[in-house]
Amino acid sequence: MKLRWGAYALALAAANSHAQSNVTVYGIMDQYLGYMRSAGGNSILGMNDGALLRSRIGFRGTEELGGGMQATFTLENGLFANDGTAADSSRLFDRQAWVGLRRSDLGELRLGRQNTEIFFIGETIDHTGRTSFASIINVVGVPSRYDNDISYTSPRMAGVKLTVHYALRESTTQSARQDGVMQLAVDYTAAPWRVGYAGLGAKPARNAPIGNAVQYHNLYADWDYGRGKVYFSFLRTNNVTANAAGNTAASILSNVGNNNNSFAGNDPNVRRFFHVYQMSADYWVTPALRLGALAGTILDTSGGGAGAHGGNVGAYYSLSKRTTLYGFGNWMKNQTNGGFRFSGSGAPSAALSGADINGRFITGWQLGILHKF
Prior knowledge:
This protein is globular. The model has no long low-confidence stretch (mean pLDDT 92). It has a 16-stranded antiparallel β-barrel with strand order 1-3-4-6-7-8-9-10-11-12-13-16-17-18-19-20. A two-stranded antiparallel ribbon has the order 14-15. With 373 residues, the protein is mostly beta strands. The protein is built from three helices and 20 strands. It has one domain (2-372): Beta Barrel (Porin), CATH 2.40.160.10.
């Protein structure tokens, strides 16, 4: 911890002493009270971090290199503001740590620990940014960031932007397949529409007993009708498995790049695909008040009865450009063998699991404050 805080102090000092070098210190604080109740009768109330956006502190900057070229970097660390602990105590900067080169007519190259393109399209998925308790795509799990990642993003031309990633596995085992986590994203914007695709694929080690690749494919479309947006989204993935939290409450390939971006290739659930269909809309009642709703369904295409469906309603009230009050009412029904559970931007520290969610009807609410600085 001394090393962690020493590094933060140095970064803050650098930011203050080089203010003319476009170094910015930024952050987010998002705290909420969350209530969940199972049809089985159990309930829980907790204070948690990140119904919409995980709390964090970060440093980003640019340096002009001449000829329109810039050097860029971001260092970002997540934290639990409800108790002050690090989101990942094993990393100094768990959310982002990358350096890059950018030119407006050539695009941008980045190297390091980076957010996925799947993570970046959150705002296109539903009115919550895909992160409230009952965002159905969120409860399936969202691949968010990977280590050793090389990415290239093209300039937007004729409304189209293309991004590719390759996150190296860096295995020292001779028999291990060297394929890393590969990503592709295509985004097209032409008012009032925004449509696109973001997805990834990853294979296990060459000698794995089950050689199927983990896949995640997300198609989306938004329509801006003036006073709000309508959101359509489709997801196909096999990155769903079981653990003590529920029958379908875990991921085969880590969503945050643990285990050096690899997975063992011994989970038969990788052969089972889920299809998720979700629709959402929001409406600006006043310049400060926005209302939203969503509904979605998860289909277990194997016929195993491990799907779910649900939805939510929500409200956001802007006290200022930086501070927002929000509230959600949520519900979800798991099929007989389904075990999906509510999750915000991060998994709640106080959550129902196991027998309280497997095959159960779950309801809940969230009330919180989001502040950006």
